[in-house]
Automatic annotation (TrEMBL):
The keyword Hydrolase applies. It is found in: Cytoplasm. Keywords: Aminopeptidase, Cytoplasm, Hydrolase, Protease, Serine protease. This is Xaa-Pro dipeptidyl-peptidase. Its main location: cytoplasm. It comes from the Bacteria. GO terms for molecular function: aminopeptidase activity; dipeptidyl-peptidase activity; serine-type peptidase activity. Coiled coil: none annotated. The active site is at S365 (charge relay system), D485 (charge relay system), H516 (charge relay system).
Length: 789
């Protein structure tokens, strides 16, 4: 086990004393104890901590050494050193003797566990004890909390409803038993239902009861007002259809570039008065865990599903400029720059008088996507976004290089299916019947515009490509993404991160080994602490060195559990060319299965994928070409985008090429879904506990997919230009796979598997097509760096 803490800041001894005093660990009683020496001071600090149930005053329950308990130590010792302090500290931090450490090697154990405890040689002074106690309070327990937060969860802080900061982070001082829950309706500049009146969008707010002004964490979630799962599932597109030939064209980007339409002249809602408080409330359902964490620390939280959702006006359209603008309007109201109403009919306006005008946007997947999108508007008041597993270009989510591509695990999903899922207005029968005809027409238009059959990049997709608008970003950006996320694939964050390098803003990136998940309840990384440091700086103006303290890139090792490393860059390594001519040339494979195999793999694409990577001979050998490199003599780091430069031909006038980069070598690898650790993390004091999670080593496997890519051979130049493809005629193309950051272990082999149909992600035409690769004129480009300790 190892704890990786990047959110602990260094400060002066004088500042430590000031902060210890502010949280009750340097009062008159403790000062008096300090006059009696370091041992008495240590006892007094523990007595103060024992005002909570996290620490006991029965000091005989703690051991200082194998032969002495803490009670006896306090009674008979005059001096204290690091070995004695760390022996007790490890117990306070919930580590278990003879499981996580031994008393005889407490200092070594603390270092091995990665704990930022004070390491002071010799006999300690009282100043040393105070320094060590300060460090202990900032150190993570075995079960996922800073020690000060463990004390807080057991009632150490009384609910003052006033902000208090320790080590640069907001403390649990707000009463979550008396939160205000209110609803407002923000007036947008949109008319997505074409009634000539500005659309209103509902916003739910949860905030502490306090006299001070507070900042807001805003989560834009189209799912928030409910989802239509059954109806949406019925709209899933069939992927058991042939790949269709496309008419070649000479389309340029300028031909399809999105241009914003002139603003309409719309009627505003009549204002009849102003209220100081909202009149509607709501019953909170499941909310974002990171937001729950901050509610007890003096931050308000707001949720909105945007236009075209339950209790809001308008029509839903996945990722559209209108959807983004509706969420932008919420930020503007929170920042004091737009008006809202207490309900949809009275005309009574309301201001966010409780807000300090500073907003952060949070959330994963669609939620993080809209956070990124709103940031690209440059809206005032948005100080930062924490976007996790977010889409930066919708084309790259449901399409890729001229192909309709499913997010991993969701064959047949598309923009119209997702829109159907979140059009929650249909959950109110009256509202649904009033809007059914208009919604049906909207869906028809969407299906046509997204062009599932053609798969080309067009104006519809260009309007949903937020990367074009990155230069508008003024907010600092925190990004989190899984390197094994095949739902929102790594290219989404890679391209955004690359574009952000051109801007003079702060950008922080976290790359983990998981799939489509949150990491705020991870045991081995102090992510919530880091975000506390970050948001205390961004939204409360705390001078806490957050910009320099937090690494620019933090990534989780794929080789060792509990190991998080830092990087200065991602994707800046020059690729190494690897020839594919070490086998006979040309080589061919056929993209057709027997009827029974086709049915089986359509129903079980995980088995299909595993077989495609398996080096042994089997029934899928005809459908792939595998190129294996020699065993690695030393570890290598693959850093960035791997590309295949291929000269190949199709036996038909259509063709698609897919490829997987694979790590071959029997190894226990990390789970891509974190495993519950049997503990609950408290998000305040008896407030919204969540499961503590960690990535663990799974059973040994012979191989692992590192990354993947797909292309329509008719879009080999770019996704909007369609080239001709003639049967049996070689063409040159470059297939760039999803970016990665992956350490290949010495003794393993790097392999590339090239094939056609991807039973999980592409259409499954089961067409009789033979593909041939000229290996003499083909190569693999891999950005590899030597691994240094």
């Amino acid at each position: 086990m190892k704890i990786n803490q990047f959110g602990v800041i260094e400060t002066t001894f004088e500042q430590k004393l000031f902060e210890l005093k502010s949280i009750g660990f340097y009062d008159a009683a403790i000062k008096a104890a300090a006059q009696k020496g370091p041992v008495a001071l240590f006892a007094a600090l523990l007595q103060q901590a024992a005002t909570t149930t996290a620490v006991t005053t029965n000091f005989s329950n703690y051991m200082v050494s194998e032969h002495q308990d803490l009670a006896d130590f306090f009674a008979n010792s005059m001096q204290l050193n690091v070995q004695e302090f760390d022996s007790v500290a490890l117990q306070l931090l919930q580590f278990v003797e003879n499981v996580d450490y031994t008393l005889a090697e407490a200092v070594k154990a603390a270092q091995t566990l990665g704990l930022p405890l004070a390491d002071i040689e010799g006999d300690w002074s009282t100043d040393d004890v105070l320094t060590a106690w300060y460090s202990l309070l900032t150190t993570h327990t075995k079960n996922g909390l800073q020690f000060i937060d463990l004390l807080a969860s057991h009632g150490y802080f009384k609910a003052t409803n006033e902000s208090l900061f320790f080590n640069g982070k907001a403390m649990v001082t707000f009463d979550t038993n008396n939160l205000k829950k209110e609803v407002v309706y923000v007036e947008t500049d949109l008319d997505t239902d074409n009634d000539g009146i500005k659309d209103l969008v509902r916003v739910d707010i949860i905030r502490p009861t306090t006299k001070q002004l507070v900042p807001t964490l805003f989560t834009a979630s189209p799912y928030y007002q409910g989802t239509n799962d059954v109806i949406s599932d019925k709209k899933m597109h069939s992927v058991n259809v042939p790949l269709e030939r496309k008419r070649p064209n000479r389309v340029t980007y300028d031909d399809i570039a999105y241009q914003e339409a002139p603003a309409k002249v719309l009627a505003s809602h009549e204002a009849t008065g102003e209220a100081m408080e909202a009149t509607e409330t709501f019953y909170p359902t499941s909310h974002v865990d990171l937001n729950n964490y901050f509610l007890s620390r003096g931050f308000a939280v707001a949720y909105s599903a945007g236009v075209g959702t339950r209790d809001s006006d308008g029509m839903q359209d996945t990722g559209s400029p209108d959807q983004v603008a509706s969420m932008q309007a919420v930020v503007e109201w929170l920042a004091g720059n737009r008006r809202a109403f207490v309900d949809r009919t009275s005309g009574v306006t309301i201001k966010a008088q409780w807000s300090n005008g500073k907003v952060a946007m949070t959330g994963k997947s669609y939620l993080g996507t809209l956070a990124t999108a709103v940031a690209t508007t440059g809206v005032d008041g948005l100080e930062t976004v924490i976007s996790e597993a977010a889409i930066s270009d919708w084309y790259q989510y449901y399409r890729d290089n001229g192909l309709a591509i499913a997010p991993g695990g969701f064959p047949g999903e598309d923009m119209d299916v997702l829109a159907e899922l979140v059009y929650s207005r249909m959950q109110d029968a009256g509202d649904w019947h009033r809007t059914k005809e208009q919604w049906t027409q909207k869906q028809t238009e969407m299906a046509q515009a997204m062009d599932r059959v053609g798969g080309n990049y067009n104006t519809y997709w260009d309007a949903r490509n937020y990367l074009k608008n990155v230069p508008n970003i003024k907010a600092d950006v925190v990004m989190v993404h899984g390197l094994n996320d095949w739902n929102v694939k790594p290219r989404q964050v890679f391209r955004l991160f690359q574009k952000l390098q051109e801007l003079n803003i702060v950008k922080k990136l976290y790359l983990h080994q998981g799939q489509h998940i949150y990491i705020n309840n991870n045991r081995s990384l102090d992510f919530s602490d880091q975000m506390n440091l970050w948001l205390s700086y961004k939204l409360y103006d705390v001078d806490n060195q957050a910009v320099t303290q937090l690494p620019d890139i933090t990534w989780q090792s794929n080789q060792q559990p509990d190991t998080w490393q830092t990087q200065a860059s991602w994707g800046q390594v020059t690729p190494t060319a690897i020839s594919l001519a070490n086998v006979q040339t040309p080589v061919s494979y056929t993209d057709q299965q027997t009827k029974q195999a086709y049915v089986n793999y359509s129903q079980d694409y995980q088995t299909w994928r595993s077989l495609m990577m398996d080096r042994d001979k089997h029934e899928l050998d005809h459908a792939r070409i595998m190129f294996l490199q020699p065993q690695q003599a030393q570890d290598l780091l693959i850093d960035g985008e791997v590309s295949l430069q291929l000269r190949m031909k199709s036996s038909a006038n259509v063709g698609l090429v897919s490829a997987m980069l694979v790590d071959y070598g029997k190894e226990r690898r990390l789970t891509t879904k974190p495993v519950p650790q049997g503990e609950q993390i408290d998000r305040g004091q008896n407030w919204q506990p969540t499961s503590l999670m960690e990535f663990e080593l799974a059973k040994a496997t012979p191989f692992k997919m590192i990354t993947i890519g797909h292309m329509n051979m008719q879009n080999r130049e770019n996704p909007w230009h369609v080239d001709d493809l003639r049967p049996h005629e070689y063409v040159d193309l470059t297939l760039t796979l999803q970016p990665t950051l992956y350490q290949l272990t010495a003794g393993h082999q790097l392999g590339i598997v090239i094939y056609g149909t991807d039973f999980e992600m592409t259409v499954r035409g089961n067409q009789h097509i033979t593909y041939t690769i000229d290996t003499k004129h083909s190569q693999l480009l891999v950005p590899v760096a030597q691994v240094t300790d």
